[in-house]
């Protein structure tokens, strides 16, 4: 789903109040009855055109009308939630304008935004309903009466979890983007000007990069954590020229560029104490091994690292355990359980074919998630290209002393080169 912020500037303060009322009503109602929207909106302000606002919001797709047998009402759409989050980021001055989308993941949209100074940042919008929709359908009865399986709730949990871990990792000096703000299902973080490892066809010294990556897995373990999706898409490679002590560029062929891996994507992080920790740990290690063998024809002479050895590192030399960071941030055990279940199902299932989506179950709900899936799976992907390049299409070769950093090959860091849509807060 594209983030189109254009309609934002036409919303009045009354429209925003009504949109907020729909969101508040959603806490207890999957479909918010129209009288309840009126009541909440009026409590929060004057008692004028609530209906007019509802019509405006429905027209631009921020709320969707649902005709239930028992009552008429509206539900917040992904677009509506996006607008509320953007509105919050704008009013806190974390985001001033919205630019292009640079990534469509299975579970998120990645959009370049800028603040008031023109500094570019990344807005990650979690979209958990995108894949788990089929599962959501299978659990419809369960979901009908509970908010805990809804896309809104699960996407917010993913954002909360990712933000908390990014913050904790950053504080321990891990190479991760700096988390700047979180609202609802979104995170604002620093933009890393680098390409995912997946898009890099060769590096001067694979052994050293391999050692760095395995080192990161072990360093995470020391702090009680397993990334859980440590693959070539979630490792960005930053290229920096190396200077010697005198500040001159190093001429030696191999050491002229420094490759620094930056790790991203944390909603699936697990504790080293997780019942399946060994499986997750081995999977992360094997991901790196497999990729290095295939792409760089590099096989380490050292076996492992193995989980049992990594386990002994937990908390070593006074390393702070970060697996507790999540609970410290207010993330309850129940939230962790709900999110784990959703992410597990997501991994297990692929994007459903259209024929897999059984619309007959849906006649009582005008559910935009369905269109959302077909958009994301075909129209959007083909329009924007696949989320990731195929294995055969690495686009960057990192050579010592190459003139362009890999980041420049794919995206411009010049703010003027990117079209930005300034956000409007309306008259609130
Ligand atoms: N802070 C950032 N700076 C630069 N690029 C980023 C940043 N965060 C994400 N990206 C880009 O967006 C892509 C997707 O981001 P991320 O892995 O966080 O989302 P995701 O939903 O997990 O995607 P996927 O399902 O494909 O793994 C990354 O591979 C990377 O290219
Ligand atoms: Mg990812």
From TrEMBL:
SUPFAM superfamilies: Protein kinase-like (PK-like), Winged helix' DNA-binding domain. Residues 67-315 form the RIO kinase domain. Its EC number is 2.7.11.1. Its cofactor is Mg(2+). Residues 372-387, 401-413 have a biased composition (Polar residues). The keyword NADP does not apply. Pfam families: RIO1, Rio2_N. It comes from the Eukaryota. Belongs to the protein kinase superfamily. RIO-type Ser/Thr kinase family. PANTHER family: SER/THR-PROTEIN KINASE RIO2 (PTHR45852), SERINE_THREONINE-PROTEIN KINASE RIO2 (PTHR45852:SF1). This is non-specific serine/threonine protein kinase.
């Amino acid at each position: 789903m594209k983030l189109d912020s254009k309609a934002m500037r036409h919303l009045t303060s009354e429209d925003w109040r009504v949109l907020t009322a729909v969101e508040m009503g959603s806490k207890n109602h999957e479909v918010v009855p129209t009288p309840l929207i009126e009541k909440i909106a009026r409590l929060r302000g004057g008692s004028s055109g609530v209906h007019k606002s509802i019509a405006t919001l429905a027209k631009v797709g921020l709320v969707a009308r649902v005709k239930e047998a028992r009552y008429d009402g509206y539900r917040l759409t992904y677009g509506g939630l996006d607008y509320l989050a953007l509105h919050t980021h704008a009013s806190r001055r974390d985001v001033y304008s919205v630019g292009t989308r640079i990534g469509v993941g299975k579970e998120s949209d990645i959009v370049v935004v800028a603040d008031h100074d023109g500094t570019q940042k990344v807005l990650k919008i979690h979209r958990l309903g995108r894949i788990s929709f089929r599962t959501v359908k299978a659990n419809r009865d369960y979901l009908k009466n509970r908010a805990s399986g809804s896309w809104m709730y699960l996407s917010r949990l993913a954002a909360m979890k990712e933000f908390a871990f990014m913050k904790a990792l950053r504080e321990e000096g891990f190479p991760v983007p700096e988390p700047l703000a979180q609202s609802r299902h979104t995170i604002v973080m620093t933009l890393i000007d680098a390409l995912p490892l997946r898009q890099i066809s060769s590096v001067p010294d694979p052994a050293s990069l391999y050692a760095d990556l395995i080192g990161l897995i072990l360093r995470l373990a020391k702090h009680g954590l397993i990334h859980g999706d440590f693959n070539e898409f979630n490792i960005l490679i930053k290229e920096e020229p190396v200077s010697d002590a005198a500040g001159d560029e190093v001429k030696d062929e191999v050491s002229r560029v420094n490759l620094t891996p930056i790790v991203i994507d944390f909603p699936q992080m697990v504790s080293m104490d997780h019942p399946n920790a060994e499986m997750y740990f081995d999977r992360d290690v094997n991901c790196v091994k497999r990729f290095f063998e295939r792409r760089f024809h590099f096989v380490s002479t050292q076996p492992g690292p193995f989980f049992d050895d990594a386990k002994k590192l937990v908390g070593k030399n006074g390393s702070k355990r970060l697996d507790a960071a999540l609970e410290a941030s207010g993330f309850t055990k129940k939230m962790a359980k709900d999110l784990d279940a959703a992410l597990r199902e997501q991994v297990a299932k692929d994007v459903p074919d259209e024929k897999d989506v059984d619309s007959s179950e849906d006649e009582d709900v005008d559910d935009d998630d369905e269109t959302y899936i077909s958009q994301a799976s075909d129209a959007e992907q083909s329009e924007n290209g696949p989320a990731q390049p195929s294995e055969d299409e690495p686009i960057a070769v990192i050579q010592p002393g190459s003139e362009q950093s890999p980041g420049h090959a794919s995206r411009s860091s010049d703010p003027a080169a990117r079209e930005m849509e300034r956000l409007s807060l309306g008259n609130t």
